[in-house]
Design brief:
mainly alpha
């Protein structure tokens, strides 16, 4: 991989990791409802789960989608259904004072597994492999995965911290309810590019 291509990959990894999407919106909601410490497994699950996903996508899943286009449609349907379910869970999250008893943040394994039904994660992984690995050698795929792993964790941590800071304003159950419903609505809105691509 050339130096220029590496810089372009770093820029793509940063922009795609820091901008709003299902992972970041859920982390902001988790930070607000459960705090930073309890959200750490969720953040690590995203960072490591997505890194592993990039390796597997680069190792051959792109060819599976090319050979069997229906599999991509089935993945899209499963992704939309699961994101709608997560939006419902966010909208109905417990008030901050009872979150410890009535709700739990996403675990490491749940967050890692979620990457496989996250439309934005698929778009990022497929774009990274097709655009930044012209030779698609295993070493190039590993470089892409490592770049994403290094950039992703600080990016997702930012959204958790933002949510945690917002928790100071969300001490009123009504404000928290509005926040949770807003986050659920934004999560559903993030499906727009999936359902109606350009």
């Amino acid at each position: 991989m050339t130096y220029e291509l590496l810089l372009a990959l770093i820029a793509f990894a940063f922009v795609s990791s820091i901008t709003p999407g299902p992972n970041n919106l859920m982390l902001m909601a988790s930070g607000a409802n459960f705090g930073f410490r309890r959200t750490i497994p969720h953040m690590l699950g995203i960072g490591l789960g997505f890194t592993f996903m990039v390796v597997l996508v680069g190792a051959g899943l792109v060819q599976v989608f090319d050979a069997y286009p229906t599999s991509y449609t089935l993945l899209k349907i499963a992704s939309v259904a699961y994101l709608l379910y997560l939006a419902w869970k966010i909208a109905h999250a417990a008030p901050a004072k009872s979150a410890e008893a009535a709700g739990t943040p996403m675990t490491f394994l749940q967050a890692a597994a979620f990457q496989w039904v996250n439309p934005k994660a698929w778009a990022m992984a497929l774009t990274a492999i097709t655009a930044y690995a012209p030779t698609q050698t295993f070493s190039t795929i590993l470089v892409i995965a490592v770049v994403f792993g290094a950039i992703n964790l600080p990016s997702v941590s930012t959204w958790t911290i933002l949510g945690q800071q917002m928790a100071r304003v969300l001490t009123n159950p009504r404000r928290l309810l509005v926040f949770n419903w807003t986050m659920a609505g934004l999560l559903i809105a993030s499906l727009y590019p999936v359902l109606w691509p350009n």
